[in-house]
Amino acid sequence: YHIVYESPDGKDLHQQIREQLDRLTGIFSTFDSSSVISKINNNQPVEPGPEFLFCFKRAMEISEITGGAFDITAGSLVNAWGFGAEEKKRMTPEIIDSLKEITGYKKVTLSNGKVLKESPEIKLDMSAIAKGYGSDIIGRWLKRKGCKNYMVEIGGEVVAEGRNQKGRIWTIGISKPEESTPGAGTELLARVRLPGKALATSGNYRNFYIEDGKKFAHTIDPATGYPVQHNLLSTTVVASSCIDADAFATAFMVMGLEKSVKAGLEIPDIEVCFIYSDELGEIKIYMSDNFKLLLAD
Question: Per residue in 259-292, pLDDT tens?
């Protein structure tokens, strides 16, 4: 994570920020066996608490809006494909079919502040909404501390308010997707001004592996059970909250270019930028009209 702020009395707030982040990890991390989400996944008794419930409810709403492209019940698939907290499996169509049986956002509900799962095998993975929520939480906390100028970035999900150290409105770069090597993506394709808004980018060019000459990217389509295979390379969403920007950016990576362009126009209060490769393999960019207005010169 990367957090920059100007505190009114010059106080160092990093220790308190670290405590906030540790607290959120203790709720949402599937890599922490004592976290709230791990206990739900392992069918252990747990009081989820208001922050988990808030994210869960928003996740369900975004699943509904995106026709299930965003789905926090895809945890078993994420694990099996080697992008989660568990050992990667050797995937077969039979394994994928069995995992699809325990995937689907309508298979989990809330009752009296508790999560009910249709099957004890269902595993939740909220990484595609929790990082954005974390950025929102830290941003709001800095505001309460009297910080007028700050930028919070957790796992590529950004909240910015006011101006940077040079007195300019915060600008966030969108990387050119470099397909060849995992972790790549340093050349900037665009710079976006972010006054009091949130931005999230999701892409398949940083987190993937090659097996038997085939590329497997970390975005899993809950409907097919397979990593997505299409020409959309990265999605960037600007919204008023980072929880929304994060979740919609992930959903659009699942949906592919055409559906996402349509959804980007229909969903209120979001602006989108999609980087894709055309038939000739050339990198192209689609931006919604209001996204273009945010571009820095």
Answer: 999 999 999 999 999 999 999 989 999 999 999 9
**Fold adopted by 152-293:** T-fold (3.10.520)
Query: Rounded to 5 degrees, what angle do the CA atoms 187, 212, 72 make?
Result: 65
Sequence ranges of the domains in the chain:
152-293
Chain centroid offset of residue 45 CA? 27
The answer to whether 178 touches 191, Cβ cutoff 8 Å, is no
Residue whose entry in the numeric block shows the structure tokens 């273009």: 292
Query: Which amino acid would we find at residue 41?
Result: N
Token pair listed for 256: 């592919």
pLDDT of res. 85: 83
Identify the helix (H) or strand (E) that includes residue 239: strand 232-239
pLDDT for 139 beyond 70: yes
Question: Could you write out the DSSP letters of every residue in 60-120?
Answer: HHHHHHTTTSS-TTTHHHHHHTTSSSSPPP---HHHHHHHHTT--GGGEEEETTEEEESST
| DSSP-based three-state secondary structure for 221 | coil
CB 151 within 8 A of CB 3: yes
Dihedral (CA of 152, 155, 156, 157) sign:
negative
